Each structure stands twice: as structure tokens, then as C-alpha cells.
Amino acid sequence: MITLITFAKTFGQPAASPFCIKAIWLLNMSGQPWLREDTADPRKMPKQKLPAIRVAGNIIPDSDNIRSYLETRGANFDKGLSDMEKATSRAFIRMAEEHMYFHIVMDRWGNDEVWPIIRDTYFDAIPRLLRGVITSKLRRNCLLGMDRQGLGRLSPQERLERIEPDLKAITTRLWHGPFLFGDRPTAADASVAAMLASMRATPGKSLLKMRIAEDEILCRYIDRASDAMNQPVSAVSAKLCA
Ligand SMILES: N[C@@H](CCC(=O)N[C@@H](CS)C(=O)NCC(=O)O)C(=O)O
Predict the structure, then answer these.
(1) What percent of the chain has a predicted confidence (pLDDT) above 90?
(2) Fold of the domain spanning 2-72
(3) Which atom of ligand 1 is nearest to the CA of 61?
(4) 8 A C-beta contact, residue 4 and residue 53
(5) Nearest by Cα to 209 from 140, 175, 152, 163
């Protein structure tokens, strides 16, 4: 049995982290039986990050490695895609995970109005008296990282302008089908929709959140992708056959 080690359900999403949501969706699509084990503390993980899976006593960290593991067990997330589509899919995944993701970090950790909600949700296990001191340090480190990465130096408006072409690229593909590569969710949807769903679920009213929440095409896509991937694949096929 596969055990997914993940951050808990948060803000109406299957997990606080879009990478954990991606892993949940890949596991569901793979048809493999799995269990979840929630934790708020990734420090014992090999890369000090989540998600990870435990299989026969071994820990496999990182959603990309989880995908590879599931593929060795027979999953074919990109079934029916041409080589050109697979190449585009890889680029969309990188766009989501190496660019869109950091906009979520800025929205959640960098916004003074949103931060208290994030702090008291992610770190509610830390006693209130200590929480402020411990989380201020974590926040400072996170924002220092974002400053070095570069996105932390942009204003919210500049960030919105920076991500707009990504959102347009996603929307352009959605004009051609319900999912990024046709009628069924593929690996790219697990990454891209997880990022969009997390952007929309962030508490408060940031420019980015409102940009997503007011976009009918993107909202319908998030809902469709969540419906399709929030349950094991066998349940989805049964629903499609009903
Ligand atoms: N490349 C990794 C990224 C995972 C990741 O960034 N996880 C974040 C949450 S979104 C994390 O665990 N952060 C904890 C930390 O850095 O202390 C993957 O695909 O799994």
C-alpha cells in the first residue's frame, strides 16, 4: 500500500500545498490504492519538503518522483498524447511548478493581510504564545528566498502582469477541450489545475486571486479538474459510464 505524506486539507482544498494536491491527483489517476498521512512538519522528509510517499518502508520525496514511481507501476498519465503534446505538457508542468507556484507563495506569505490567516492555519499546532516568534522567522526566510528568486522584488501589480501570459497560454489550450490535452485529465492538468485551485483558494482578496476567481474559463476548468481528479479513477470511470 502507498502512503502519501501530505500537508492537511486547507481552504477547501485536498491539501495546503499545490504539490500535495498534484500528488493526490496523480495517485487517484493511477488507480493504485493509497492512504494519506497528514503532517504539518516536513523536517523529517529527505528533502524537508512535502509531498512524499512511503512504499514498503521507503520514502520517495517530490511529486515528480512520485509520478515516476507510479509510472513504474503501470500508470500512463499521458495516454494518447503525441510526442509533440508530451513536449508541450512538460513545458506547462515547468511553467506551473517553477513559476506559477511562486506567485502563490507571495500571495500567502508576502501579503500582510493574508499572512495572519496562513500563520494560524499552517502552524496551529504551535502554541499561540510561541507561534508569533517561530513563524516570523520562517516567514522572513521564505521572503528572503523569494527576494533572491526575484519575484519578491515585484509589486502585486507587476506580479499580475508577469503571470498574465501564463494564464493566457492555459486558456488558449482550454479553448480546444475541457482539459489541457483533450477530453481527459493528464499529468499537466494535475500540476496546472492544482496551482490555479490553490491561487483561487488563498484567503483574502489579492489581485491574483481575484484575477482567477473572476475568470469563467479558468474557474470552470478548476472545478472540472477537481471533480475528475479528487476521486480514484475507478469512481470516475463508473460516473462516466452511468
Ligand atoms: N519539487 C517539489 C516541491 C515541493 C514543495 O515545494 N513543497 C513545499 C510546500 S508547497 C514544502 O514542503 N515546503 C516546506 C519547506 O520548504 O519547509 C515537489 O514537486 O514535490
Answers:
(1) 95
(2) Glutaredoxin (3.40.30)
(3) 20
(4) yes
(5) 163
**Euclidean distance between CA atoms 153 and 156, whole angstroms:** 10
Model confidence pLDDT, tens digit, residues 22-66: 999 999 999 999 999 999 999 999 999 999 999 999 999 999 999
Q: Which long-range contacts (CB under 8 A, 24 or more apart) does 176-180 make?
A: 178/221, 178/224, 179/221, 179/224, 179/225, 179/228, 180/89, 180/92
Distance in Å, CA 240 to ligand 1 centroid: 34
Compute how many other C-beta atoms are within 10 angstroms of the C-beta atom of residue 193. Answer: 28
Q: Which of 14, 65, 58, 20 is nearest to 42 (CA)?
A: 20
Grid cell 515547468 is found at 94
Q: What is the pLDDT of residues 72-118, one digit of tens each?
A: 999 999 999 999 999 999 999 999 999 999 999 999 999 999 999 99
CA of 48 to the centre of ligand 1 (A): 8
Q: Which residues make Cβ contacts (< 8 Å) with residue 153, sequence separation at least 6?
A: 147
For ligand 1, is residue 50 a contact (CB within 6 Å)? yes
Ligand 1, residue 138: give the atom nearest the CA: 17
Using CA positions, which residue lies closest to atom 9 of ligand 1?
Answer: 17
Q: Is 226 in the pocket of ligand 1 (CB under 6 A)?
A: no
User: Is 0.85 topped by the overall pTM?
Assistant: yes
